[in-house]
Amino acid sequence: MTREEINRLIAKDLLKIKAVFFRPEEPFTWASGIKSPVYCDNRLTLTAPEVRADVEKSMAQVIGEEYPQAEVLMGTSTAGIAHAAITAYLMGLPMGYVRSGAKDHGRQNQIEGRLEPGQKVVVVEDLISTGGSVLEVVDVLRAAGAEVLGIASIFTYGMQKGIERLAAANVKNVSLTNFDIIAEEAALEGYIRPEDVSRLIRFRNNPASEEWRE
């Protein structure tokens, strides 16, 4: 498939199973207090076999095209672990994952799985928003001596803060689909009204403001 075809396929899949769900008239409240017109839970892809197959095959294709030198896939904990495992199986690559913190027992590992210094790693993540959590994973891997080629994620909001953080850390991210495409597909499929698309983009551009609701 072309990259555009992947973008549209995954967008439709996520909407179909309500992994990404738009509700501009009744916004969700994030833990930060931000009023959001979108709810995202890509873990739902794991319980939808057809969608899961689309995601993992697309992830394998994109990693193969964007990071042909990849030697190891490392999932983020916990959402990226299953996707890293399945994609690594399809690609015939080893995988592991990075904990959010080191264990307080046993070998006190933060990186699970074998990782040799100098190995070329791709981080597998389900969602990129402001980029903070995935960059912590990149830092852990770099500290262990890995060469992080970049990130492969299912979905990105494309928020400016996230874009700037990734750029500052010199980290490439490639996503299977993004907020703009999903908003377009949601309008085309009748999940939202066509006039809601511009409101959603305004939210994406400035999540802390509620101007998008006007």
Short description:
With 214 residues, the chain is α/β, with parallel strands linked by helices.
Low-pLDDT stretches: none
Helical run tally: 7
Termini separation comes to 39 Å
Helix/sheet category = alpha/beta
In the sheet with the most strands, the strands line up as: 7-6-5-8-9-10
Arithmetic mean of pLDDT: 93
Give Rg in angstroms: 17 Å
- Strand residue percentage: 15-25%
Tally of extended strands?
A: 10
Folded structure, characterized:
With 214 residues, this protein is of the alpha/beta class. It is 39% helix and 21% strand. It is built from seven helices and ten strands. It has helices at 3-16, 49-66, 81-91, 132-143, 160-168, 179-188, 196-205; strands spanning 20-22, 28-29, 35-36, 38-40, 72-76, 95-98, 111-112, 120-128, 147-156, 173-178. A six-stranded mixed β-sheet has the order 7-6-5-8-9-10, sandwiched between helices. α5 (160-168) links the parallel β9 and β10 (173-178). The termini are far apart. The model has no long low-confidence stretch (mean pLDDT 93).
